[in-house]
Design goal:
The protein has a domain at about 1-70. The strands form four sheets. It has an eight-stranded mixed β-sheet, with helices on one face. Strands 4-7-10-13-16-19 form a six-stranded parallel β-sheet, with no helix packed on it. A five-stranded parallel β-sheet has the order 5-8-11-14-17, with no helix packed on it. The longest helix is centred in the middle third of the chain and has 11 residues, at about 60-70. The chain contains three helices and 21 strands. By secondary structure, the chain is α/β, with parallel strands linked by helices. It has helices at about 1-10, 35-45, 60-70; strands spanning about 15, 30, 80, 85, 90, 95-100, 105, 110, 115, 120, 125-130, 135, 140, 145, 150, 155-160, 165, 170, 175, 185, 190-195.
């Protein structure tokens, strides 16, 4: 998905990195493994990187990968799909991607390595920590605070001015109507801790 966004934005995509060569993706070939990154940066000093690694849980793996590659000298610009809407005074951290149909409204802030997925909504004055995934169709109403490494499942809704503890997973379709102070997995309507 991210490769398609980059191509539509007009970026020149050199290739992708993977431990397993998977052939071409939208006409873009595999350049090798992460061990080949220093040579790529040496050959292309202005080259930036974008994470294609997804996130379906509260793991920090995505952000850890970004930090390792950043330490080699790659930058991670935020990427906003052409069909996404990012309003005024929004802060997007390094490596954050905002995908098609997503809306990030005024004065919202997203930390490094976040994913605002297709048709997700992050309303005004929301603050997302690092490595947060707001899955397709999820809605964070105004003023929501989300801690680092959280996963907000597809179609979940968080009502305005709630906070969610770092490392929490909100299940698909859940409705959060109270602050979540204890990390865990929350599901249902209203959302309750299930694990």
């Amino acid at each position: 998905m991210v490769v398609g966004v980059l191509l539509r934005l007009g970026y020149r995509v050199l290739g992708y990195m993977d431990a397993v060569r998977r052939g071409t993706i939208l006409g873009i070939g595999c350049l090798g493994t992460d061990e080949d990154l220093p040579a790529i940066l040496e050959a292309h000093p202005a080259c930036a990187a974008v994470l294609g690694l997804g996130k379906v849980n509260t793991s920090a793996a995505r952000l850890e990968l970004q930090r390792r590659v950043s330490a080699l000298g790659f930058s991670f610009p935020p990427i906003v799909a052409p069909a996404a809407l990012v309003n005024q005074e929004v802060t997007l951290g390094a490596g954050t991607v905002v995908l098609d149909g997503a809306v990030v409204n005024c004065s919202a802030s997203c930390g490094d390595g976040c994913i605002i997925n297709s048709n997700a909504t992050v309303e005004h004055d929301c603050v997302l920590g690092m490595n947060v995934h707001v899955a397709p169709g999820a809605v964070l109403n105004g003023g929501v605070l989300v801690g680092d490494h959280c996963m907000i499942g597809a179609g979940a809704v968080v009502v305005q001015y709630r906070s969610i503890a770092a490392g929490t997973l909100i299940a698909a379709g859940a409705t959060v109507i109270r602050d979540i102070d204890e990390l865990g997995i929350y599901a249902g309507c209203p959302a309750r801790r299930i694990a």
